[in-house]
Write a structure and sequence with these properties.
Blueprint lengths: L18 E3 L6 E3 L12 H15 L4 H8 L25 H24 L2 H14 L8 E2 L9 H13 L1 H12 L8 E9 L3 E8 L5 E4 L5 E4 L2 E5 L5 E4 L6 E11 L2 E11 L5 E3 L4 E7 L5 E4 L2 E5 L5 E8 L5 E8 L2 E4 L3 E2 L5 E4 L8 H21 L24 H15 L5 E15 L2 E13 L3 E15 L5 E18 L1
Parallel strand pairs: 3-5, 6-12, 13-20
Antiparallel strand pairs: 1-2, 4-5, 6-9, 7-8, 7-10, 10-11, 13-16, 14-15, 14-17, 17-18, 17-19, 21-22, 22-23, 23-24
Length: 497
């Protein structure tokens, strides 16, 4: 029942007290009644409360107040009920609300565009390769695997980082192959692996681990990987499967006792093939190194000696390793040149250490033999047109700047001089190459002894000199003389016929 509105009915036409209705039970009451005769409702209190509320709500219109809040006499038009409404003014949306909405929208758009670039396929690969290159903390987050036995972590990825630090060019190739989908050995695949922030594709480098096998020939030998013992052999033909391992460089070793002496076979291996075998046999090996004189010789990056003046070094009873790598370093002035690595595979092997861009000793011998054959041809004929070797290579081709080289001109002058000397019946040249030493990138010096044998009328005159030919590599597989120095006389003899 509504209690805030009164129901009115007109009085009779003869006048008298105004008739109203009880707001509680609806029975007729007089305006002067204080209580309803039917239900006992307190009409006086109700009228007082209604009057106070109307006065506070609209003080400016007494007539309206009387009409809305107080009982009135009924009109001749009949009975009715009044339900007033109050119009509420509309308020504009505050400016700060619109600003906030615009800012939020811009932030969302900017965040999406940033994320789209940050999580692009190429950008994720760039970050992954950089992390591998630097060995960054959290590098494992860029990798995934389907092998349940491989629990990826930064430590598990470290061998891959070590490998690429030793071979930077391989890292560039690794990235190119991943960008195309996978590496040539099928060990790594760059693939979609989920979503980042619900909207962006997430890529990882999926790795297929390897399980190499280590073998040893000693009972009781302890096998370790990167310093952590993984097995102890129990026979003289023992094998142990290692892994799972992420492809990379690992230091793998076996330590045991041979003839009462503790021995270790250790080496750094690039493990990347399924079924790869690593020989950890415990035995010794001996070999001879032939290289440039005074070259410092290293085995697996540990110095073991220096080649003598003849360019030789004997290495005896060295503990065997499956990746026994020999290198040499030659100091020339302020620079040091490193030889090509040589892998020792058998006992009593001869190890020839060669330097990139430098002739081998055997090649230098052949080179000088042919050069002096060309000189001898001019000596015999006195004609420069005969200055060529047995392969029809012109003598001028042996020198930088060809026929304009001062040394070439000296050779021609000397050969013609011997031809024109009536006291000399014939001349023989015998060249003995003593050494080849690097002097810089694609530069080297050939030291040789040259013996001149002059046949005279009634005697033989023999002279021996030492020379140094400064040479350089020219083109893919060609070498030329820059200049020749020395000329120190080693012997000079006369023998009567």
């Amino acid at each position: 029942m509504q209690t805030n509105h009164k129901r009115y009915r007109a009085a009779d036409d003869q006048g008298g007290n105004q008739t109203m209705f009880c707001p509680n039970c609806g029975k007729p009451v007089n305006a002067t009644d204080e209580f309803c005769g039917n239900c006992g409702f307190n009409l006086k209190a109700y009228h007082a409360k209604s009057t106070a509320s109307a006065t506070a709500g609209q003080p400016a219109s007494a007539a309206s107040q009387t009409t809305r809040e107080s009982p009135v006499a009924p009109t001749r038009s009949g009975h009715g009920t009044s339900t007033p409404t109050t119009a509420r003014p509309s308020h504009p949306t505050p400016k700060w609300v619109w600003i906030t909405v615009v800012v939020v929208v811009l932030v969302l758009i900017g965040g999406y565009l940033f994320g789209k670039n940050y999580y692009s396929r190429s950008a994720q690969l760039d970050r992954a390769v950089t992390a591998v290159k630097n060995g960054n903390k959290g590098v494992a987050d860029y990798f995934s695997t389907s092998d349940p036995n491989l629990k990826l972590s930064d430590a598990k990825i470290a061998p891959l980082t070590k490998y690429f630090k030793s071979k930077p060019a391989s890292l560039a190739s690794f990235k190119r192959q991943l960008n195309a989908g996978q590496t040539d050995d099928d060990r790594f695949t760059y693939q979609l692996s989920g979503k980042a922030w619900l909207f962006f594709d997430k890529y990882t480098i999926h790795v297929k681990p390897v399980y190499p096998t280590a073998t040893t020939n000693r009972d009781g030998a302890k096998i370790s990987v990167d310093g952590k013992q993984v097995a102890t052999s129990n026979s003289t033909s023992y094998s142990k499967q290692l892994g799972p391992l992420v492809p990379g460089n690992y230091k793998i070793a076996a330590t045991g006792t041979v003839n009462g002496r503790k021995m270790t076979n250790t080496g750094t291996y690039y493990v990347d093939k399924a079924g790869q075998s690593i020989d950890l046999a415990l035995r010794t090996i001996s070999f001879t190194v032939e290289t440039s004189p005074k070259t410092v010789v290293y085995v697996n990056n540990e110095k073991i000696g220096t080649a003598d003046s003849a360019g030789e070094l004997d290495v005896s009873e060295l503990p065997w390793s499956g990746n026994l790598e020999v290198t040499g370093k030659y100091g020339s002035g302020s620079s040091t040149v490193t030889s090509k690595p040589y892998q020792v595979t058998s006992n009593d092997e001869t190890v020839n250490l060669e330097f990139t861009g430098v002739m081998s000793l055997d090649d230098a011998k052949d080179y000088m033999d042919e050069l002096w054959t060309a000189v001898n041809n001019v000596t015999s004929s006195g004609d420069e047109s005969d200055a060529s070797d047995d392969n029809d290579t012109s003598l001028s081709d042996y020198y930088v700047d060809g026929a304009d080289n001062a040394q070439y001109k000296e050779m021609i002058r000397m050969a013609k001089g011997y031809y024109n000397d009536d006291d000399i019946y014939s001349v023989d040249y015998d060249c003995e190459v003593r050494s080849v030493v690097p002097t810089g990138k694609d530069k080297f010096t050939v030291t040789y002894y040259l013996t001149y044998t002059f046949e005279l009328e009634d005697s033989t005159h023999t002279q021996e000199f030492s020379y140094n030919a400064d040479m350089e590599k020219s083109g893919t597989d060609d070498y030329k003389i820059i200049k020749v120095t020395g000329g120190q006389k080693l012997r000079d003899t006369h023998e009567d016929d």
